[in-house]
Amino acid sequence: MSKESALPCHVIAGPLGVGKTTAILDYLRRHAGQQQVGVLVNDFGPVGLDGAILEGDPSGDGLRITTVPGGCVCCAAAEGLVTSIQRLLEVPGLDRLIIEPSGMADPEQVLGLLRQMAGTTRLELRPTIALLDATEFEPQRASQMPFFRHMADAADILVLNRCDAADAATTQAFRDWAEALEPAKMRVVTTEHGHLDDALFALRLPEGSGPEAPGHEGTHEHAHGEADGESDRTGGATWPPERQFHHGRLTAALAELAEAGVKEGEVERFKGIFHTDRGWFVLQIAGGRFTLRETPPRRDSRADWIVSDGDPRRVRQALEDTLAGE
């Protein structure tokens, strides 16, 4: 198959809340009107939140969004991943495909599916980019935790994001750790606000590089519950666009929820788009931090969340009660 007809495919992986969607938005904004880009998003929750964030961005001209919500594309939603990519391959004039797996997914399982497709379609798999969070990075933890090792092992390009919030010792520790990994990475990068240079997207994998596509019977460790019971840990809800939330009460409640989540180990991740009395906002809880930013109007208000310890039903109900009471 000729390189001219090939469709470059980039996987941007990383844990929940590390800034994958921000990195994709940064790329799209820089190339708005210049490239036709397809983005396939695997949301961790059931309502397709990250896909909605991308769809509503002003850089959306020439953008084709496909969402695979409510399951991990490395197992429960694998069939949806394959079907969605096949549909995107039929889109005329598409210049590039970016895939954002859920932060709970094992990238190597996703890459195995993509390698199989690359052998029979015009899909050209490019170097895998994995992001880690500078505010949470610690070399020993990254080396010992299976999830982070799977992430690092699958990456061709390893990126430490949010370096503006970390000290020089942390970024140097990351470089030392990353450069000692085997096999060696194509690039080791430190960045802020999810910015990924265009040069990273221009890189190609060496001919014949990468392991054979793995079977699904191998080790598969990620943040699912019993028997992949993601419904025991995740929740989501939508509200009609005319529903207007009280901005002050909503942000105060979520900030309190973020602080409580750190203390009690319950709220692992929260992301929502809300129509408030001050306009539309994206609100998030990640790594115990609550953040918000303005966003263009959307077709509805919606939120996804994931909990860890404690009683998931109680936490889910508390979230729903907090939001419904606004």
List the helices and strands and how they pair.
Layout (H helix, E strand, L loop, with lengths): L6 E7 L6 H11 L6 E5 L7 H7 L7 E5 L10 H12 L6 E5 L6 H12 L4 E3 L3 E5 L5 H6 L1 H9 L2 E5 L6 H12 L7 E4 L7 H5 L31 E6 L7 H18 L2 E10 L2 E8 L2 E6 L6 E7 L4 H13 L2
Parallel strand pairs: 1-4, 1-5, 1-6, 2-3, 2-4, 6-7, 7-8
Antiparallel strand pairs: 9-13, 10-11, 10-13, 11-12
Short recap of the structure:
This protein has 326 residues and is α/β, with parallel strands linked by helices.
Mean pLDDT: 78
Radius of gyration: 19 Å
Q: If classified by CATH, what would the architecture of the largest domain be?
A: 3-Layer(aba) Sandwich
The CATH topology of the largest domain is: Rossmann fold
Q: Give the biggest beta sheet.
A: 8 strands, parallel
- Total helical elements: 10
The best one-word shape is globular
- Give a count of the beta strands, DSSP E runs of length 2 or more: 13
Helix and strand pattern: EHEHEHEHEEHHEHEHEHEEEEH
SS class: alpha/beta
Helix amount: 25-40%
In whole angstroms, how far apart are the ends?
Answer: 56 Å
Which ranges are low-confidence, i.e. pLDDT below 50, for 5 or more consecutive residues?
Answer: 72-76, 210-230
State the fourth-level CATH superfamily of the largest domain: P-loop containing nucleotide triphosphate hydrolases
Share in β-strands: 15-25%
Region (Disordered): 205-243
Domain CobW/HypB/UreG nucleotide-binding: 9-184
Biased composition (Basic and acidic residues): 214-233
Organism: Thiohalorhabdus methylotrophus
